[in-house]
Design goal:
- The protein is α/β, with parallel strands linked by helices.
- It has a single domain, classed as Rossmann fold, CATH 3.40.50.1820.
- The protein is built from seven helices and seven strands, in the order βαβαβαβαβααββα.
- The strands form two sheets. It has a four-stranded parallel β-sheet with strand order 2-1-3-4, with helices on one face. Strands 5-7-6 form a three-stranded antiparallel β-sheet.
- It is globular.
Length: about 190
């Protein structure tokens, strides 16, 4: 007998978008003999999602809440969901699983943001530093070509496959209001 394949709930890192999971899903599909059921979400303030509120509650509430809302809206009651999350996505899955312990069959967490409250520097200091770095990021360019070129040269993205880079660019950039420039969908302020 074949075991039922789980529903994969894919959660991206801060500043990324749901499309970054497409190459992963394509590779996983090659490994299975059955069609995969998967959902990739855009967290609030990222990709094609709703914007973050002007004074958002703690991020664990916002992004953990995004996970739970996605489960409620698209999955319902199921014991077949496996959450896969990278960085903030992993932390959001942990937050959601603490709020709803039976929501997942399992979790696969890749570099989840989980800080030891006793560590040095403190979690507050780390958070402040990461926020300041994000605020300094460039968020718009004179042309879409310039935006794509800029992203392709950034160190975190140089290891992306061509398919991964195309997915990232497609999901994380939009045309500026003038129709010429390129803009990050997740603004530096939202990422911060």
């Amino acid at each position: 007998g074949s075991e039922e394949l789980p529903v994969l709930l894919l959660c991206h890192a801060t500043g990324f978008c749901k499309e970054t999971w497409l190459p992963v899903v394509e590779e996983l599909a090659k490994l299975t003999r059955s069609p995969l059921t998967w959902i990739a979400l855009d967290f609030s303030g990222h990709g094609d999602s709703r914007p973050l509120p002007s004074h958002p509650p703690p991020w664990s509430e916002v992004f953990g809440g995004d996970v739970l809302s996605t489960l409620d809206d698209l999955v319902g009651e199921s014991d077949q969901v496996v959450g896969i999350g990278h960085s903030m996505g992993g932390a959001a899955l942990l937050s959601a699983s603490l709020d709803r312990p039976n929501a997942f069959r399992g979790l696969c967490l890749i570099e989840p943001i989980v800080l030891d409250p006793t560590s040095k520097p403190s979690p507050a200091q780390v958070s402040k530093h990461l926020s300041e770095v994000a605020k300094r990021r460039r968020g718009q360019w004179e042309s879409m070509d310039e935006a794509v070129s800029h992203i392709r040269t950034r160190k975190p993205f140089q290891a992306f496959s061509p398919r991964g880079m195309d997915a990232m660019v497609h999901g994380c950039l939009r045309q500026s209001d003038d129709g010429v420039g390129g803009v990050l969908k997740c603004t530096p302020e939202a990422e911060s």
